[in-house]
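Posting here for the record, re: aspartic acid.
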Amino acid sequence: MNPVALAIHGGCGVMAKLDLSEEEWQAARADLASSLRAGWAVLAKGGTALDAVEVAVVVMEDSPHFNAGYGAALNENAEHELDASIMDGSNFDAGAICAASRIRNPVKAARAVMERSGAVLLTGPAADRFAERSGLDIVAADYFTTERRQKALAAMKAHARTGTYAAASEAEKHGTVGAVALDRAGHLAAATSTGGYNNKPQGRVGDSPIIGAGTYARDGVCAVSGTGQGEFFIRHVVGHEIASRIAYLGETLETASHKVIRDDLKSYGIGAGAVAVDGSGNVSAPYNTDGMFRGWVTRDGKLHVASHGEVFFVETLEVPGAPGA
Ligand code: ASP
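Prediction output follows.
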C-alpha cells in the first residue's frame, strides 16, 4: 500500500521565542496538532490529499494564532483582504481567491472555484459573492480582526513613519498557513491561505493564491505551500521551481526545497519558508527566519509540531494499512 504523509505550516512570521508566554506557544502548537489530526483523519480512512489539505487549512484559518481567516493581517486601511488557493496534483486542477473580505474559510472558496466556476482565480467582491452563492459561510468583515493584528498594524505604521521597516519583527510583518499531503492513491495536493502582510497596500495580491508560486502540486514530484514575502515567491515561482529541480535535475525534496528557500530567497534578506511532501511521503520544512510554525505526520504516523528550533513529538497516529490499524 502507498504511504501517506501530511505537513503544514502556520507561517514563518513567527515571534521571537520570548515574546509570547509558554501558554500562548502551547496554544499555537495545540492548534497545529489539531490541524494535523484533522488532515490525517481524512488520509487514514482512504480520503484524498485534496480533502486532507483543505480540512487542515480550515483548522488554522479558524485559529487566532495564524495569519489566515480569523486573526488575519490588516491592510493599510485596516481592512482584511484574504488570499487562498488549492491544487490537485493528480490533474493540475487548481482554484484560488484573492482580496476577499467576507468568506470565513477562504480555502473552501478556493476549492469551490476549482470545482464549480470554470475559472482558476476569482478576485475581491466577486469572490465573496461566488462563495456566498456556493453556500459557504459568510461573515462580517470585522470577524477576522484580532487585537494582535491591530497592534501589528499600528507597529508597522510606526515603522513606516520612522523609516525603520527593517527593524520590524517577522511577526509584525506577515504570516500564512498551508498544507501539503500525499494520499493512499499516490496523489499529492497543496493548499495555502493568508491575510498577506500587515499594512499591505489595498489591492495587493501575494503569492498564496498564485498557482506555481505559493502553492503547487504535481503527482510523482511534490506538493509545496510557501510562506514569506510573496513578491519574491511570485518572481521565483517558488512552488514550481522546487518541483522543477526535483523533476528535471533529479534532486531530492530536501535538497530542492532547501536550495530555493534557504539559498535563492535568503539572498534578498527576506523571510521565507515552505512545507513540501514528495511522492514517496518524504517531508521537508525549510525556513530562513528565526522560526516557522510547522508540523508533520510522517509515513509511520508520528506527529510533530514546532515553532522554533525545538521539534515536539506529540503522538503516533493510526497508519492506514499498518498491522493493527
Ligand atoms: N506569502 C504571504 C504573502 O505574501 C505572506 C507570508 O507568508 O508571510 O501574502
